[in-house]
Amino acid sequence: MQESEIMNRVVSLCKRRGFVFQSSEIYGGLKSCYDYGPLGVELKKNISDLWWSNMVRNRDNVVGLDASIIMHPKVWETSGHLAGFSDPLVDCHDCKTRFRADKAPIKEAGSAITYQIQPPGQKKQKIESVVGDCGYVCPQCGSPNLSDERQFNLMFQTGLGPVDPLEKIPELVAKENLQGKDLLKAIREAIATSAVYLRPETAQGIFVQFLNVSQSMSMKVPFGIAQTGKSFRNEIVTEHFIFRSCEFEQMEMEFFCEPGTQVKWMGYWKEERINWYKQFANHPENFRLRQHDKDELAHYSDDCYDVEYQYPWGWDELEGVASRTDYDLKKHAAATGTKLSYFDQQKQDPETGKNGWRYVPYVIEPAAGLTRSVLCFLCDAYSVEKGVDAKGVEKERVILKLHPKLAPYKVAVLPLLKKDGHPELAAKVAKALGDVGLIHKVDDAGSIGKRYSKHDEIGTPFAVTIDGDTVSDQTVTVRHRDTANQEKVHLDKLQEYLVQQLSDFSPSRLT
Ligand code: ATP
Questions:
Q1: Nearest residue by C-alpha to atom 8 in ligand 1
Q2: Considering the domain boundaries, does residue 359 fall inside one?
Q3: Handedness of CA 327, 331, 337, 340 (dihedral sign)
Q4: 404 in a structural domain
Q5: Same-domain status, 296 and 350
Q6: What's the pTM value of the predicted model, to 2 decimals?
Q7: Which of 359, 378, 397 is the C-terminal boundary of a domain?
Q8: Which range marks the domain in which residue 462 is found?
Q9: Distance CA 476, CA 454 (A)
Q10: Centroid of ligand 1 to alpha carbon of 86 (angstroms)
Q11: How many domains does the chain have?
């Protein structure tokens, strides 16, 4: 199947089956904004909960935090986001596409190039030209006829408080006859008085609460603080459905460790993180670690690995595991005059040789995208099986082979009829499943075949059909999503059987 066809199919399934919708769709939608529907929100929550269990609840040395999205604006000045959280923006003079220079197709500066343009209302024209000194071309039309790069800050700015900062501007203009650049400067200064920002990452909330968390919880280095939540970036190019959007969710952890131990902890966390994804995957070979080249590293970072996934368009980032040194804590300490350090009574200070060592911890940061993980697991699970029906006609079976821990429903309860005691038995089965914590859906809409197809497509691992046999001899038919095999199980054994099947489940690659 073509790459674009897989994406089209995944996007269409998401809408048809209630995973992801275009935001404000009835108003024509808003570019790159998405709503997670009833099944999407379950899938997202399952991923987030599994991450939280793995990173926080199952570890003695990691605790959680839920910091506010809007923080003191000085946080972003100190962290460097106000001055430097920008991407290089370029305009194509030919097709008017606006793009990121660092993601543009690379071509050798000075090399000859042929590309096509089609001015409005005119025929296509072939143009021969030469690649400029920048060494890249327009990703849309291939033109080297480009604007200079300018830095575009990705943070969303808004104002805090009930004051309109622009109220005073007309008066100022009248009094001082402000025009052009002076007027722009006055407007910017007025806005800055109440400007706050939507956080572009969850990490800074953790750094600025380092002291409160470590003291209130008596944390001992090495320890981590984790949080999940929304982040916002005014991306120049949003792409690949929910892969890159302006509003998205992250799952980040800052792991504070002794200076000099960061290489060891980087080794530990990069393996932990890639293995965490692989355990839920049908195709673990589609996950890999890629170490950043020295020139890719942020100035404060001494090492970084990306967990990459092979999306339908190729390898791309899923998570970054960065060694951030002691940069952030030191910067916030210097800006606020707060001692953001750790005192280890058991250690000798390496400089003085005296007992007790106060130091600023180094940090390893596994920073994952939650909404990006939703896309990754949907792509990993999407599969199509070709077969023939009873009449010999070719047909396709679409199966979302989600790991049961990710699947929105674990069991579908399907009464064959809406009468003859089937609904009552379905309610009894549903209650029994609920009693052992199995998330299920009683579904009586449409033919049994259609219901099987629907639950295959939304990734429900097991379907329990209630029919005449259930009434007469208390047996149900359990259908397995991945094989379509069916088994008769007595109602008395159903709970135990399903709990066992789900705990034994391994992605289809292993069976
Ligand atoms: P990219 O190179 O794809 O722009 P990044 O390196 O800027 O990502 P980080 O700042 O390291 O991303 O953020 C950590 C994680 O947050 C990313 O690995 C990704 O999963 C997620 N993420 C970042 N930006 C977006 C976005 N615009 N939309 C969805 N997820 C995002």
A1: 317
A2: yes
A3: negative
A4: no
A5: yes
A6: 0.92
A7: 378
A8: 409-510
A9: 19
A10: 13
A11: 4
Tokens of 478: 């359990």
Q: Among the atoms of ligand 1, which is closest to the Cα of residue 252? A: 14
| Residue nearest atom 21 of ligand 1, based on CA coordinates | 369
User: Does residue 274 sit in the same domain as residue 342?
Assistant: yes
Distances (CA, A) of 73 to 160, 193, 234, 236, 345: 10, 10, 17, 23, 35
Q: Identity (one letter) of the amino acid at 370?
A: L
Residue of 36, 54, 12 lying closest to 278 (CA atoms)? 54
| Pairing of β 440-442 and β 411-415 | parallel
In a shared domain, residues 251 and 370: yes
Residue 510 has pLDDT above 60, yes or no: no
Q: Do residues 63 and 104 make contact, with C-beta atoms less than 8 angstroms apart?
A: no
- With a Cβ cut-off of 6 Å, ligand 1 is lined by 201, 233, 235, 244-245, 248, 250, 317-320, 367-369, 371-372
**How far is the first Cα of the chain from the last one, in angstroms, to the nearest whole number?**
24
Task: Find tokens 């400089």 and name the residue.
Answer: 351
- Residues 145 and 216 placed together within one structural domain of the fold: no
3-state SS class at 431: helix
| For range 192-205, the mean pLDDT | 95
Q: Give 254-271 pLDDT, tens digit per residue.
A: 999 999 999 999 999 999
Same domain, 232 and 350: yes
Contact 290, 308 (CB under 8 A): yes
Residues 145 and 265 both lie in one domain: no
